[in-house]
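User:
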Amino acid sequence: MSVLNRVVVVGVILLIIGAALWLLPDTKIEEVEGQYPTTRVIKYRFLVENPTNKLLDRASFWAYAPVKITAQQKMLGVDVTSTYEIETDAAGNQRLLISLDNIPPFGSKTVVVNVEIAMAQEPNRLNKSISEQYLKAAPYIEVDDPAIQRIAKTLKGDTVLATLEKTFQWVTRHLENVEYIKRDRGALYALQHRSADCTGYMYLFTALARANSIYARPVAGFVYAEDTIAKSSDYHNWVEVYVDHVWRVVDPQKQRFMENENHYIAMRLLDSLNEQTAGSAQRLFRSDGAVQLAMK
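Assistant: Predicted structure:
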């Protein structure tokens, strides 16, 4: 066969392969973006007060918007009744930087944030790499502490799911649920005192899972089954664990193990390596100091 004929044959083969690939179903978008068939609207309102006897020409504050995309949710849009910018970090956390002009002496303004999100019926498998940081110790997640390691060893099962189920049962049985604690205390504190609010439950479960080499990350947000006005008193903490290539919701304080996952609206993936998410797990908003700020 001449060189020319070989080139023609190879060209025909490539055209046939290309046509076949073109006709195959395009599954890449579905794998990455998943299915989020239910739309939900969440509103939250801020009362911004000028505590001084002088006109405030300009003031600002920031507040989190829902995480851009998780296995359970996808952000569709946001509308704010004031000037704003939005920042997104590598993990998908989104922060609104909101500005206001001309707040009169001892006066106030109300800012309303409307967010539209799409929710999944079942958690989606996302085509994203998993950071090794979700196996490591971090502030409030004392994975390497001997007491954490000792308990985790007794909870190791034959599979990841079995280990998580045993961990869930241990945490829910051995911690006393207490009222909201203003300051983060961490996994070791919860273990030593055998009591915690949702934040302590979250940190202890995360530490025990990581101690058994299971990817786990703490999450902050809201738990709502339908459209609503979010309240600061409803702000909640839970855990996401990586099982069979899918992030699943575990909420030891509410005693929910991978159930009602599309009720969980993530506002922050609490990743200590991201500047946006550093600090208290209970922080949803903060003013620039010139104004007093409350979520109503």
